[in-house]
Amino acid sequence: MWHDAVLVAGKDLRIEWRSRVGLNQVVPFALVVLLLFGLALGPDAGRLRAAAAGLFWVTVLLACLLSVQRSVAVETADAGRDGLRLSGLDAGGIFVGKSAALALQLLVLEVVLAVVAALLYATPLSGIGLLAATCVLATAGLAAVGTFYGAVAAGTRVRETLLPLLFFPVVAPVVLAATKAWSAALSHQGGGGLGWLGLLAIFSVAYVAIGTVAFGALLEDG
Amino acid sequence: MNALVPPVDHGLLGESAAPHAVISSRRHRAELALRIVGVAGLVGVVLTVWLGLWVTPPDAYMGNLVRLLYIHPSMAWDAFLAYGVSFAASACYLWPRTRDLRFDRLAGASAEAGVVFTAITLVTGSLWGRPTWGTWWVWDPLLTTTALLFVLYLGYLALRKVPGDPEVRAKRTAVGALVAFIDVPIVYFSVTWWKSLHQAPTISPGKSDVHGLMAWTMLLSFVTFSLVYVWFVAHRYRLAGLQAREEAEGLAYALAERRAEGGAKAVEKNEVLT
After folding, report:
1. A156 contacts on B by Cβ (under 8 Å)
2. Do residue B193 and residue A173 have CB atoms under 8 angstroms apart?
3. Mutation target vs B (from A137, A147, A148, A156; most B CBs, 10 A cutoff)
4. How do the pLDDT tens digits run along chain B, 274 residues long?
5. Residue in chain B nearest A214 by alpha carbon
6. What are phi and psi of B45, to 5 degrees?
7. Do A199 and B151 touch (CB under 8 A)?
8. Which of A89, A209, B156, B189 has the greatest number of C-beta atoms within 10 Å?
9. What is the CA angle B42-B43-B45, rounded to 5?
10. Hey, what's the torsion of the CAs at B81, B85, B86, B91, to 10 degrees?
């Protein structure tokens, strides 16, 4: 399974490296959203600073949706899904591989966004350890749920509109927990964020496990 | 020519063309039971409205607002009952030994009723909150979870609407429903924790004696709306079955008609030629 996961992740990352859709489209899109949030809340530095963590994570979520769409589109085009099915790769491995590739792209995006958000919202990045741990755990959960619902919606003609409706309510706890952990770190109260890290860990482990088990059933049907 | 035509039934409700006596009597009994449930539910609703709006007294603290007690909690109970049934039916469908499209239909029918009851729960709760807490909405764990549940199941219903092969669709929606359902405790826990870190719980039930008749009316509302739920779901389930039949047999029927038409024309042609 792990071998298959590495193969699939390598494939997705190679496609991204050659097409640079994430870098040239998703990252700029996320930056635009950060700017728009700034405009919507006005130039008051105090208000922006108070909201920075939440704005960052909502932006990540929106960008995540685009990345999931892209990850699904890669398989839908040229009947890649059938190819995957015929390849004899383990379904759990495919799930882990696609999730890992998605998570890696999201982590890169989060680093860029964090720096820009820190500048735009006048929020010095404190408690880097907690910030980074939150990113890793939250991203694992987002990528797992995203990959799973991406596959649920993949075979349908209304994919683009159905996916966000299925995806966003499920990851609501991730946005909540990640925002609280980041707020704690940014306001120098790192201890308050540890519990939220635990919640993120539970969420991520649960959804990675379920996805690995249930992905086969989804892939069979296409 | 007729040998090519698949057997098609023309019954109004899709009843089998040659009904087996046992099946027929069982169906008849089921329909009778359902009718009784429907009538009992209707009588219950009328009684609840009469008791709730005219007979029971206003509360000492909450005044006439207390009358929402006769609808709001029972609607919330119905909603959770509906989601529970939907979850169980989805699990039954996924379990290989009990895999049956009837479970899929039951899951869909129950979830649909659940969404309606959730909407009513949210609206009546909001109506109660405005005069009591001075605001239409508070970020209370129960409220927030209910709202998210509403959206989760709207997504589930949207997924069910996607056309496709019934088996594929059933499996896809069942897996989707199970994965969504796991989210509910996580959401509840996280929102509870979020609020507890910031402020004291907002909902504290008003300390007031529940008048004997009020308690009975509330109990009646629970029984009544449970019956209404059963009636809704049973009818929706039956309708889903008919829809599935129509989908499966409609094409066969159209093809048969077309063939018969073609056959008639061929016969005509032959007659002209000879």
Report:
1. 162, 164
2. no
3. A156
4. 344 444 444 444 444 445 566 777 888 888 899 999 999 999 999 999 998 888 888 877 777 888 888 888 899 899 989 999 999 999 999 888 888 999 999 999 999 999 999 999 999 988 888 888 888 888 877 888 889 889 999 999 999 988 878 888 888 899 888 887 888 888 888 887 776 654 443 444 544 456 688 888 889 999 999 999 999 999 999 999 998 888 888 778 878 888 887 777 666 666 666 5
5. B175
6. -65, -45
7. no
8. B156
9. 65
10. 140
Domains: count for chain A = 1
Cβ distance B176 to A149 less than 8 Å, yes or no, reads yes
CA separation for the pair A102, A112 (Å, rounded): 16
- Among B151, B176, B191, the residue with its CB nearest the CB of A152 is B176
Q: Taking the domains of chain B in order of start, what are their residue ranges?
A: 21-202+213-255
Q: Which two tokens stand for residue B65?
A: 């607002």
- Residue A31: give the domain boundaries: 2-221
Cβ pair A192:B152 closer than 8 A: no
The interface predicted TM-score (ipTM) is: 0.85
Kindly determine whether residue A170 and residue B159, on different chains, have CB atoms separated by under 8 Å: no
Provide the residue type at A125 as one letter: L
Q: Could you say which DSSP state residue B58 is in?
A: P
Which residues of A fall within a CB distance of 8 Å from B162? 156-158, 162
Q: What ranges in A87-127 are assigned the alpha helix state H?
A: 91-120
